[in-house]
Amino acid sequence: MMSSQSALSEAPRGRRRRKLPEAGRLGPAWALPVLLFLAGFFIVPLLASVMRSFSGADGFTFANYAKLLTDGYYLGVVLNTFKVAIITTLACLILGYPVAYFMVRHAGRWNPVIVFCLIAPLLTSIIMRTFGWTVLFARKGLINNWLVELGAIERPLRILDSEVMVYVGLVHVLVPFMVLSIAAVLKGLDARLEESARILGASPLQAFLRVTLPLSLDGIATGCILVFVLTNGSFLTQLLLGSGKVVTLSLLIYQQFTLTQDVAFAAAMGNILLLCSVVALYIQLRYVRRKGVKE
Question: CA end-to-end span of the chain, whole Å?
Fold first, then answer.
């Protein structure tokens, strides 16, 4: 009786084992549509952009890259692009880490509400969110009207069209990516590690700095890479809130396409931005891989 039951229980397993290799052979076939889609709409346009960046009146040339990396004005734009990205990333980290920590450790039943407040703006057009700041801080906007009515100021302040408002708009758009990246890692940490550090005599600040913060570096790195790359590719915020006064490569690319229509030079700038993104992602990959090897 036992032998017959074991034979019946093992029979389906045997059939499943025979089917698994057959399903595994379909792996490349299932991936083929995705590979074709990526090749047609991602790889081919990238290659076309690279080839276009080396084109000139006399054929193949490095003049576009030489102009971008040696001309004082354009080199200043490249450095300003990195400056804007770094400052925005640091601001998002400083503002986003406490929010992520509160969500994971103290929010409790309010955690879904905070997550909704973070995700809801991502479902709204970036143009509408940027115009929201315009409605608030324009010369005849809500903030200036309230200050004038309260007697705090005599005439409306000129708040828009400044570098500060560009950073405010960028942080508003990008800080959810930082918060969600850090919160995802903090959720995986065992809270008892902090409690153990407290029991061994560490203060709350010491427990955070020596236990929680080092263990959450993966989330910090991921959030910083996301914000840095997205800031490099952003131009609407600079255009709408800064009126083009904060010039970055992405804004210059937009101007090259719409005003001067120098497609080859715009392609060169786009490839520089792409290279910066690839380098940032490579650094993150090496960091994660080294940490995985150590563990």
Answer: 49
